[in-house]
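Example 3.2
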Amino acid sequence: MPTPSINGNVTTDDAADMVAGSLSLNSEGLVNMASDATLNATVMGDSHLKCGTVRSDTISRQAGTGSPFSFSYKLTYNFMVDCNSNNQPDSLSSNLIYSGSYTGPNMSGSNSGSSNFGVGGLLPSETQFVINGEYKRAGSFSSKVDTAKHGNSNVDIAISKLTLKKPSREIESGTATFSITGTTPRKGIFSFTGTLVFNGDGTATLTVNGNVYTINLETGERHRH
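Structure, written as tokens:
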């Protein structure tokens, strides 16, 4: 199997847009999944459910009227209460499959994927939720900046200690690594890897191939440093 091209006509700006589309609220990205998981952790914790209790939920979600961006997704969740050695509910397992499409600031896509999160912090004495796990998104993409750029992509994000404060569930900190692979017509395959740092101010710092970007976690807009 040939070694992936570094770009295949896809730039680091395009790679940053793919990650931004996989993260932001306005593209039903990882930030939404983290919010859903911690909301359910709050509800299930407050309900004093027993260890091993499972809850399933299917959601259809679209962008609000008047939004400059759009998305439409169907999400199917399974949550389970996990307990510590003292038989106290202290964490939540969150498993998701989803599919849909979005149009963001610089890129649109139709995709499907999954997330598998472990959410710590259910005990009333704890002041934060902490998420570890993996988020995946795969499907087609099309650049709004250069319509000649389109193809298929796979985005895989592994998050570590993504911390959300209680009770607001706002992101305070966390890190992640990501990989992107895909193909474009006639230009071949591409591959990128990089890192993310969640800054606690509604942004994340993305580094890919030595280039640094700030990602707005709400809008998906990115700024190259």
